[in-house]
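ok so dumb question maybe but i'm new to this and my supervisor (M.) told me to 'just get the structure for Pentacotripeptide-repeat region of PRORP domain-containing protein' and walked off. so i did the thing. is this what she meant?? sequence i used:
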Amino acid sequence: MKPLLRKNLNLYRHGSPVLRYTDLYNRISRTADPAVSMVPILENWLDEGNEIKRPELQEIIRQLRKDRRYTHALQISQWMTDRVCFNLSPEDAASQLDLISKVYGLEEAEKYFSSIPENSRGYRVYSALLNCYAHTKCLEKAGALMEKMKVLRFIRTPQPYNLMLNLYSQMGKYEKLDSLMQEMKEKGIKCDFFTFNIRLNAYVASCDIEGLEGLLMKMKADPRISMDFHSYAAAANGYLKAGLIEKALTMLKMSEQLISSSVNSKRFAYESLLGLYAAAGKKAEVYRIWNLYKKNGVFSNVGYVCMISSLLKLDDMAGAERIWGEWDVGKLLFDIRIPNLMIKAYCSKGLWEKAEALINKIVESRMEPNGASWDHMATGYFENGQMTKAVEAIKKAISLSKPGKKPCLYRVEVCLKYLKGQGDMEAVEELLKMIKESPFYSTGAYDRLLSCANREDLTTSGSDQTGDDDRTVGGEPPTALEYTDKGSTRIMTD
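this is what came out, is it supposed to look like this??
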């Protein structure tokens, strides 16, 4: 086959790999529907007399992975080896294993790993499987694979250790971290930036201020480590959790000095700082960061989520309404999280009429409220004595539920109590049927509600004993801190 003349593909521009939009990539990028296979596009490309070389396909796969188009990336990867018969390089095999895990699950990834000849697996393939185990929190399997990699002498860099450190940290096994880092030291494997930041975030999560401060000093003294925004932001979060506001503010000022000049880096940093300054109770700083965010020129729905969440945390309802209004007028992409913030806030303050007007506006604009929207409304209704409306809202919330975002049993039970008190047993049975048929409530949850509905003296004490899985409040998790692999933090509310 003649080499493909890739006039529009420049893999190295300004010193970094960049994908230029070739005709082939244009065809692939235009077909974003995961239900549409990429194979016919590739076959048609060859039928037209075009040729394809491995580097181009590899670069397209990398771009699709960045865009989270994992199904299409996997289709091209498998076609590359099955149809074009390129020899499977360790890098290709590792990428394909990871994609199989993302698309079809861990079990299929393990089958694929077993199908690769032992002498062809190598460090990259083992590392890819270790990453899959870490991502799915399979601690036992990850530990066993790590030990095998040690026996095979595949561990020469901190990356496998970082995966295990992060896994232990996510599972709350903080006591394992120091021994693992000591093992790295004994084997002559130096900690890198990610190692330190994983440990830093673990100190934050466990509220170990002494450990946090000791590690910060160690990082500053290490000539190989360049402190950046993420490290200081993580430290600030740790101080905030411990109630050390002044130390947190010092860290935040230091983090601001290290914000990267790129537009996207600034956007992420400002979104993080909004929540952190709000947690410190500094309204003026929140508005200052928001003005910097706007000057940056790139707005995102996440930014509005962070800003409105921050103002609500500071009990600045007027400010939250103003920012909400700005988004509502200028939005390019509807994001239900943003009106949900206002609906929840209105309901929590007894302003259910405002919340109702807002949800009606969403419906009239042909957008769709989600389960959380109606769950907030149900809360607002029954806390203000509007029980008929509360029942209808809770039914809508159940029908639109998603995993981890369902109405809690307490509110369902309140509605059951009301309906039984009204003598409307048909409505009681209808609500119980909805719970039974929902894939997001356990059998035990249904049985508890059924037992409760059958009691002569129906009270709300029954759901006090439900497990965490069935006690989700508001159909969504409370405000939480989101951590990146570099240790950055930003307030996120769904």
